[in-house]
Amino acid sequence: MRTEHTEHTECTEQSAVTVLGLGPMGRALATAFVEAGLRTTVWNRTPGKDTELVERGAVSAPSAEAAVAASELTVVCVVNYDAADAVLRRDEVADALKGRTVVNLTADTPDRARNTARWAAEHGVRYLDGAIMTPTPTIGTPHAVFIHSGPEDLYREHQPVLDALGGTHTHLGDDPGRAAAYDIALLDIFWTSMAGYAHALAVAKAEGISPRELAPFAQGIGAILPPIFEQTAEELERGDFSGDGNPITSAVSSMSHIVHTSEAHGIDAGVMRAAEGLARRAVGRGHGADGFTRIAQLLSDR
Ligand code: NDP
Fold this sequence. Notes:
By secondary structure, this protein is of the alpha/beta class. Helix content is 54%, strand content 13%. The protein folds into two domains: 4-176, NAD(P)-binding Rossmann-like Domain (Rossmann fold); 182-300, N-(1-d-carboxylethyl)-l-norvaline Dehydrogenase, domain 2.
């Protein structure tokens, strides 16, 4: 695995890239390429999304096949792999892509990524998969985070163009599904955290605490998590489940207070009930004195 912090792209004016998909993220990617001085061709299923990009210097292609024929490298960024496949797997597009490279930055499951990689190999298309871990305003800045997987030599070949997107790029391995697997795991953290925060804001409001009053304390809770993430990972790898002064029985008690307060206000406590259920299962299996890391181990033990 290698990580590079991008200062500036090494691309020349001759470098060309195509972007398929001009939703908010596709537009951000195309804008970064244009601003880095790359000849950028764009296409979107629904016309009219490229007006601003064309004003900045992008070339609008009349069709997906014309777009991919304009560059050695095509970056795809659409809603999911149903959409990506609908664009890429049309005969005209597949023919135009033969011998060229696709970097698919669309988010979906690892299996879908592997499936599209297989299709690409069968059609003579060079294929890299990837995921974007940061929102649109970060693209083209040092704060962007990209992960990639697929053949490493192909990644190295196109790295100078990808670097034009700014931020950090990490190649995670040859398995084309690996970037999507990281993406799924990381978004698991993100969405369960956001569901917890949405619930916390509702319970706080019911108790007369405004969102702005809670926010600085919420940030404090967020800040204690990074060292806990690290410690949990180390414990899980060592097989160390000792409660260390913070047993699961205590976590269950804390969680049940949240469930009771929430439901007393008529607020759906489903997310917290799910977490409490996991902890209670661990206690039921005799692990009440263990630490929270035990829950990760039980979930992995299928
Ligand atoms: P969306 O996820 O809403 O994707 C919109 C794009 O998908 C548009 O270009 C849309 O075309 C296209 N699309 C949808 N269905 C089809 C189809 N059947 N055939 C062809 N094109 C289709 O918006 P984003 O641009 O924000 O996201 C793109 C990808 O980037 C997603 O996978 C997302 O998860 C990922 N991502 C986005 C982030 C963000 O902050 N926005 C952050 C990290 C990742 P049309 O205009 O014609 O509908």
